[in-house]
Amino acid sequence: MRIKGAHRLSLKLAAPAALAVAMMASGAVAWAGGDSGGDLNSEVQQLQQEVQELKGEVATLKTEQTVAVPAAGTKSPTIGEQVGSIGKDLGDIKTNLSTNLGVHIHGLVDATYEFNFNQPKTAPPGAPNGRVNQLHVFDLDANSFDLQQGNIHIDRTTDGGVGFVTDINFGEVANVLSTATHYSNAFTIGTQNIDLTQAFMTYTLPVGQGVNFSLGRFVTLLGEETIPTWNAGDFNVSRDFIFGYAIPFTHTGLRAQYSFNSYVGATLGVNNGWDDVSDNNDGKSIEGQLSLNSGSLMSENQSLAFTLSGIWGAENAGHGNTHRWVIDPILTYHTPIAGLQLIDEFVYGQDNGNDLVTPLPVSQAGAAPSPFAVTDPSWTGDAGYIVYDYTDNLEFALRGEWFRDANGARTGLRQTLGEVTGTVNYKIPAVTGLLARLEYRHDESSAKPFFTNAGINPLTGTPYQTIAGQNTVMGDVVYSF
Q1: CB of 326 within 8 A of CB of 352?
Q2: What pTM does this model have?
Q3: In Å, how far are 130, 133, 466 from 119, measured between CA atoms?
Q4: Are residues 123 and 269 in the same domain?
């Protein structure tokens, strides 16, 4: 910029010098040739006028080269304004991708801190991950800051064409999901697991209202609670026992969904089974869901929705002569009270033809559990939610749950569990997509599965003390875009 400006300035300054030379040349010609004085004066006046015009242009050019001083009282942009500007730039990029390619990119980052009042020592001294919240799903690290989830969501939707959906997760969510699939659908960067939680193609067959097909890996139909994505989360920070132990996380297979009208829909699919990326036996699993909603049949301020989901199939590795099945009805009622909704989920599951050996409950501190054999183990549970949106930015959620693992088929211990969880959710007004949450949770068991600060006996590997209850408090910040 500076070089170009100097070049322009030198051209402007050269013009007056050229005019001066012309004036002298004109004077010399007049002297030699005897031209009249009137003609000479006229030429001199014209040249003087042109010089004045050139001086004005030079002054204007100098003004353009001068950096303006900010006006008094001008404020620097705030952090919120800078974030908003970055968000606008990102929004422009997303808009261009959406408009030109039909591709949408979203994501979230979820960071937590959780304190366990038991201060559990769950590993021998010096071992990593020495404090763990027993029977929690994603919020495993006690008394620690944690990256609970990072998520990148990419999808492409088209009218009548082939689309796709992908969800890539890292953090504790990726660690848990990778373990569930025996790391068959995950890769690592350093020590961090990266899980390809969803990756499926979509196609809408133009029959009736349109049959929507999905082929690949996708999250399960079962359960009120979910693996969060940028636009779908849960009312509470921690997941309930049903989500963690009663139902699968994901499936790999083929799924078809059809809406008969605005009130009734159905989904049917076939897949490799519970969290199996590749089938580990000679049988497949069948999944299905029937969804009903009141639509406009009820008053404007209330609605009723019901889903009945289920899965049945071979789940034992190596053979398909045993079958696991689960039924999972969920009822959601948006009450006439603005912002208040009530939800209830019931679940029942069973492993038919499966002989399971599980330990008995620990009868006293430090006692080793004894084996117990059972045929056709089963599990059942129920979770109820009261959710109240006080304002558009402030929400209160209360969850109560019991889960009976009578045979220890799901938790590894014969027990009945209960939990009560209260959560406050607050959307930060200054930054779009920023959510802060605070949660208190109490867990209780008919057995004694919860560790204390007493630690682990290094000789036996068993805890010095276990108790029936566990209390945790968690702070959580989520940014989604």
Answers
A1: no
A2: 0.77
A3: 10, 9, 12
A4: yes
Residue position matching structure tokens 């953090």: 171
The two structure tokens encoding residue 378: 């089963």
Domains held by the chain: number? 2
Long-range CB pairs of 13-19 (<8 Å, 24+ gap) are 13/58, 15/54, 16/51, 16/54, 16/55, 19/47, 19/50, 19/51, 19/54
Give residue 400's pLDDT: 98
Token pair, residue 158, equals: 């088209």
Name the DSSP class of 183. Answer: T
Query: Nearest-CA neighbor of 91 among 433, 363, 338, 457?
Result: 433
**Measured between alpha carbons, how far is 149 from 296 in angstroms, rounded to an integer?**
37
Phi and psi (nearest 5°) for 179?
-65, -40
Residue 102 domain-assigned (yes or no): no
As a whole number of angstroms, the distance between CA 19 and CA 15 comes to: 6
Q: What does pLDDT average to in each consecutive run of 10 residues of the chain (481 residues)?
A: 39 42 40 46 64 59 48 54 57 59 91 96 72 94 94 87 94 93 73 91 93 96 95 93 97 97 97 88 92 91 96 83 93 96 98 64 46 78 98 98 95 96 96 96 97 90 93 98 92
Model pLDDT, residue 124: 72
- Shared domain for 43 and 124, answered yes or no, is no
Query: Would residue 194 count as lying in a domain?
Result: yes
120 and 55 both lie in a single domain: no
Q: Which domain holds residue 47?
A: 2-65
**How many degrees, rounded to 5, is the angle at CA 433 between CA 432 and CA 436?**
110
